[in-house]
């Protein structure tokens, strides 16, 4: 029995196609995070930061940087991956991909890999933009990169799932706008959950975004709302859950073959 080979050319073709689509909107893709980050620093860093100087011993302007990066990472990973797989469904070209000599794993690697690359690039752009406003220090750069890649890949998988689930452009925006954005703002992106009353703090611990932001912030300042080990375990669990869901989708053909 012959062992199936990995079709790297197929993966690379899907990856290149998705990256080429991003390059066509390069200017808005670059300008939007820069302008948005600048506005956040004006509003949160200047207005609120003048009244709340430090959080856990970290200047407030520096404290919100990991939250800003995560906010963009969540949004861009979801939108890039969901639109990348929804568009072939909408135009009907998904059947050409499914009939091509590429496995489900290779299709996911191409789409999710491209979405992850774009999201990480935007995250690094925000990090560079933030460095113009405040001095930054990253105590654990390798952990920072690891959390960045793992979170981008996790939300790209989630975006891939949303793109397959959605039957319209309205559904495509439903979860990112009405679910993920509130969870991010309530997940400690711009404050420490230790500042909340005990009851609200306990409720916030059920928000999965808290663990993602907390672990990423720890890599900068060794300051976190929850244990970094718990954050890493939670991030890995979300990634595995997304991967298993995608495997189930391709095995059952859920909303792919109808």
Structural class: mainly alpha
Poorly predicted tracts of residues: none
Number of domains: 1
Rg is 19 Å
Strand percentage: under 5%
Major beta sheet summary:
2 strands, antiparallel
Give the count of helical stretches: 10
Which bin fits the share of residues in helices? over 70%
Q: Estimate the mean pLDDT confidence.
A: 85
What's the shape? globular
Order of helices and strands: HHEEHHHHHHHH
How far is it from the N-terminal to the C-terminal residue, by CA? 32 Å
Number of strands: 2
Across the major sheet, the strand order is: 1-2
Written description of the protein model:
- With 258 residues, the chain is mostly helical.
- The protein has one domain.
- The protein is built from ten helices and two strands.
- It has a two-stranded antiparallel ribbon.
- Strand 1 and strand 2 form a beta hairpin.
- The longest helix is centred in the N-terminal third of the chain and has 32 residues.
- The chain starts with 7 loop residues before the first helix and ends in a 6-residue tail after the last helix.
